[in-house]
Amino acid sequence: MTSLAGRPTRIVVDLDAITHNLHAIRARVGVPTMAIVKANAYGHGLLPVARHLQAQGVERLGVAFVEEGIALREAGIRVPILVLGGIFGPQLGQFLAHDLEITVSSLDKLRQVEAAAEAAGRKAAVHLKIDTGMARIGVHGASAGPFIEAAVAARACAVVGVYSHLACADDPAHPMTALQLARFATACAHFERIGAPMPLRHLANSGGVLHFPDTWLDLVRPGLLLYGVLPDPAARATVDVRPALSLVSRVVYFKVVRAGDTVSYGATWTAGRDTRVVTVPVGYGDGWPRALSSPTASAPGARRGGEVLLRGRRHPLVGRVCMDQFMVDIGADSAWNEDEVVLVGRQGDDAIGVAEVAERAGTIPYEILVGLNLRIPREYVGG
Ligand SMILES: *Cc1c(COP(=O)(O)O)cnc(C)c1O
Q1: Ligand 1 — pocket residues by CB below 6 A?
Q2: Could you tell me the pTM of the whole model?
Q3: Alpha helices in the chain (DSSP H)
Q4: Residue 130 sits in a domain of what CATH number?
Q5: In this structure, which of 31, 161, 259, 326 has its CB flanked by the most CB atoms within 10 Å?
Q6: Both 152 and 63 in a single domain?
């Protein structure tokens, strides 16, 4: 952090950490990777991350929506891209025009894809989605036979993959994963039964990669883990990953708050003694959660309130997080305007991870990362 040109608040993405994590995942699973880059690559920036992953030889990319896939194609990304989300008929022409792989999640959708492919004079590359317990999108395992048969017979479709999604893989002890794996295997057996070649079978998200080797099959689909974050406090760090994202800002204001005076909206926090308070120019308008406001005595709840690193020490957020600013009580410590403040990342001997921020805000690390919005400039190091 050397320049104060532009906004002093920055997300710094360490591309070397993403490289390290991709290789660590590959070394563990021994099958190809579909790197998940939906939701702006979990806040890390869709295009820079996708370009970097392509340069690292990633086999495939996965996104949630067709718009994300088109953005990748328009930026010159050439690797196969699967759109994981449910499809809308009128968008199918866009899938075909941009060579995006389609998730087909019902017989009805299969018919729509066939019709669109025939109309466009192209073959649609499809992955069949089986619902093994998530009940989100996908053909229920019990109806998979006729669905697979119809897809294999559809001349305008090339069945590239068959997949499902795990509901409970973040927890290494949860019995749901074995049940889903068994249902998925039963569904996949229909390909053998009708003498059709087995397409790519894929099931493992980050939790599956970490905890359930039986789910690795032909391809893994890690998202969060690729960015160096574990999905859950119960997760086991069976892959050595490093966090890729830091969020830093600078002190914009310093003052002394007198004992008995209050800080921020609602006057929810009262100084118990004369103390030093600094203001940091980041707020919920950037996606920094308002749930990191200091807990009030009248509503203690589960939240613990946020902390930041300043001059190598931890200090608590006080009062409510505003849209564009929040305040930090530094007690008797000193600080100067423009001092670096670390919201996520390392400073001195201490570090605040996304998982910690999530726990303090009463949410999951996914929501913290993807919430960091486009008002915050991204800076890329390494790569
Ligand atoms: C988001 C998503 C993933 C990646 O999940 P992580 O928990 O971030 O690894 C994998 N598969 C599907 C279908 C998804 O929607």
Answers
A1: 36, 38, 84, 165, 205-206, 221-225, 231
A2: 0.96
A3: 15-29, 38-42, 46-55, 66-74, 92-97, 107-120, 144-153, 176-193, 206-211, 354-361, 365-371
A4: 3.20.20.10
A5: 326
A6: yes
Write the pLDDT tens digit of every residue in 118-151.
Answer: 999 999 999 999 999 999 999 999 999 999 999 9
User: What pLDDT score was predicted for residue 3?
Assistant: 54
Residue 138: inside a domain, yes or no? yes
Summarised one tens digit per residue, pLDDT across range 334-372 is 999 999 999 999 999 999 999 999 999 999 999 999 999
* Residues 218-262: tens digit of each pLDDT: 999 999 999 999 999 999 999 999 999 999 999 999 999 999 999
Same domain, 56 and 203: yes
Identify which of 205, 199, 239, 200 has the alpha carbon closest to the alpha carbon of residue 219: 200
Stated as kind and residue range, the H or E segment containing 157 is strand 157-163
**Residue 133 within any structural domain of the chain:** yes
To test ligand 1's pocket by mutation, which of 63, 82, 84 has the most ligand atoms within 8 angstroms of CB? 84
Residue 285 in any domain: the answer is yes
Q: Are residues 219 and 279 both part of a single domain?
A: no
> Could you give the number of structural domains in the chain?
2
Residue range 173-178: average pLDDT?
A: 97
Cα of 266 vs centre of ligand 1, distance in Å, is: 39
> How far away, in angstroms, is 222 Cα from ligand 1 center?
6
Residue 19 lies in a domain: no
Of 159, 194, 226, which marks where a domain is finished? 226
The SS3 call for residue 25 is: helix
